[in-house]
Amino acid sequence: MRMQVAGEESMCEVETCLLLPHTVTNLAEFTAHPDRHLVSIEEDPGRAAKLWFERAAKNPYGGDGVVQIRYFGAHLVPPGAWDDTEAIWTALLDVLEGFCSTGAGYGSFCAEVTLVGNPHAAEFSVGGVSNRIEPRVFIPAVLDGAKRYFHWVENMVGRTHPGISERIEALAGLTDHFSPPRAPANPSAAGRSLDV
After folding, report:
1. How would you class 145 by CB atoms within 10 Å of its CB: exposed for 0-12, middle for 13-18, buried for 19 or more?
2. Counting Cβ atoms within 10 Å, is residue 188 exposed (0-12), middle (13-18) or buried (19+)?
3. 141 and 4 in contact (C-beta within 8 Å)?
4. 69: phi then psi, degrees, rounded to nearest 5
5. Between these two residues, 27 and 96, which has the higher pLDDT value?
6. In this predicted model, which residue has the larger pLDDT, 168 or 5?
7. C-alpha distances in angstroms, 168 versus 28, 98, 165?
8. Residues 6 or more apart from 38 whose CB is under 8 A from it?
9. What residues does each domain of the chain span?
10. 67 and 77 in contact (C-beta within 8 Å)?
11. How far apart are CA 180 and CA 22, in angstroms?
């Protein structure tokens, strides 16, 4: 089941999926049919864990995959932006930490990730593709996705990340002063890519 921030259904959804090995030979096909190439850690946690262990037995990383972020239905992470899921989540937390501290967060995995703006409006960019987001909606959803991911890694894969829960909770506390979500003036503009 894909999880959403309570009370904000369809605003922002975050899901971590592992990439099935040797399935992506054509990026256009992967983009058109991602379900053929991905296993959700939430919809099929056992299969995802088995995939992790099989891959880790042959490669240095067991968690190759994607973090899908949908904001008002728009996909914010390009389909080709897959990497080790632990690296993706570390980069996303770095971005949120920088944004909450200074208004500008930067990180990278296979693509550069940025979040720049203020507590009321910001631009989230992955690999040069920018989208307007509302931090009060976006950040809690991403933090919830991080909690679910690291919980799955600890309970299904057996890897611990000391201090990660505290880091996520500290970031959640930094957003307490953000304003309530506003309805977009033009709902069709939500999540629209910006020309940067």
Report:
1. buried
2. exposed
3. yes
4. -125, 120
5. 96
6. 168
7. 35, 13, 5
8. 17, 18, 19, 20, 65, 66
9. 9-177
10. yes
11. 44
Check: CB of residue 139 under 8 Å from CB of residue 76.
Answer: no
DSSP 3-state percent helix, strand, coil across the chain (nearest 5): 40, 25, 35
Residues in the chain: 196
What is the rounded distance in angstroms from the CA atom of residue 187 to the CA atom of residue 6? 20
Read off the pTM.
0.84
State residue 89 phi and psi, 5-degree precision: -65, -35
Tell me: pLDDT of 4 over 50. Answer: no
DSSP letter, residue 41: T
- Element spanning 90, H or E: helix 85-102
Residue/partner pairs of 45-52 with CB below 8 Å, 24 or more apart: 45/152, 45/156, 46/156, 48/17, 48/18, 48/152, 48/156, 49/152, 49/156, 49/157, 51/18, 51/20, 51/21, 52/18, 52/156, 52/157
pLDDT tens digits for range 130-180: 999 999 999 999 999 999 999 999 999 999 999 999 999 999 998 877 756
Q: Which two tokens stand for residue 175?
A: 């957003």
**Quick check: 114 and 104 in contact, CB under 8 A?**
yes
